[in-house]
Each structure stands twice: as structure tokens, then as C-alpha cells.
Design brief:
- By secondary structure, this protein is mostly beta strands.
- It is built from two helices and nine strands.
- It has a single domain, classed as Beta Complex (Metal Binding Protein, Guanine Nucleotide Exchange Factor, Chain A).
- Helix content is 11%, strand content 32%.
- The strands form two sheets. Strands 3-4-8-7-6-5 form a six-stranded antiparallel sheet, with no helix packed on it. A three-stranded antiparallel sheet has the order 2-1-9, with no helix packed on it.
- Strand 3 and strand 4 form a beta hairpin.
């Protein structure tokens, strides 16, 4: 298991804030918001494959959006930070905070995984 000091050494200050402290980057500031290359998106902390580019779409919400995650790649936790409970999305391998999932996405799942760019790394095909 990785210690918090090891995470601080491995991640940038901004990545640590998001992945380990459940922060959120400013809308439309992330490098993957308008990114449309073919490949896969992995956890910036541990390299776990999370999303395929074939599930990415432009939701115009300000963060990279996906309608599905890779099988067994993420877990969901209830987030009570706002007045209305939300479903937090975390990496199943390292527990890093990725973003939230909402039920206003496109078919076939109807889900919108709203994910922080800083929690991701892209690997092209």
C-alpha cells in the first residue's frame, strides 16, 4: 500500500489535490476536455486502465466525459459534500478520486462519467 508521503512524491501538487484529497479542477481547464485521439485513459496515479476513447463524448460540462468505464476499473462511493448526494468515481486499484457519475448521459448507458483531466493519463493506440 502506498503511503500519503509516497503519493505526494509521485504526483504533482495538483494531481495530489484531486486524486488523494478529492479536489476538482476548474471547468474547461483540463487538457482532455476537447481531446479526441484514439486510445485509452488510465489513472494518473497507478496506471489502471479506466476508459476507452470510444466511450468519450463532448457533454459540454467542462470536464472530460465518458458514457462507460472499463469493466472492474472503477468503484462508486456516495459523496455528501454538496446538499444533494452524488456518486463519486474512484479508481478501483488505488482508490484515487477521479470525478463523479451522473444519469444524464447518452445511450447505451445513460451515464455521464465527469472526470478530472488531472486524474488521467492518455495512451494512444
Amino acid at each position: 500500500m502506498t503511503s500519503e508521503q509516497e503519493w505526494k512524491n509521485k504526483l504533482t501538487k495538483e494531481q495530489y489535490h484531486i486524486l488523494r484529497k478529492k479536489g476538482t479542477e476548474a471547468p474547461f481547464s483540463g487538457k482532455y476536455v476537447k481531446h479526441n485521439k484514439k486510445g485509452k485513459y488510465v489513472c494518473a496515479a497507478c496506471g489502471n486502465e479506466l476508459f476507452g476513447s470510444n466511450t468519450k463524448y463532448d457533454s459540454n460540462c467542462g470536464w472530460p466525459s465518458f458514457y462507460d468505464a472499463k469493466k472492474d476499473a472503477v468503484e462508486f462511493k456516495t459523496d455528501f459534500k454538496l446538499l444533494i448526494p452524488r456518486k463519486e468515481v474512484v479508481c478501483k486499484k488505488c482508490g484515487g478520486h477521479l470525478g463523479h457519475v451522473f444519469r444524464d448521459g447518452p445511450k447505451p448507458t445513460g451515464k455521464r462519467f465527469c472526470i478530472n483531466s488531472l486524474s488521467l493519463k492518455f495512451k494512444g493506440n
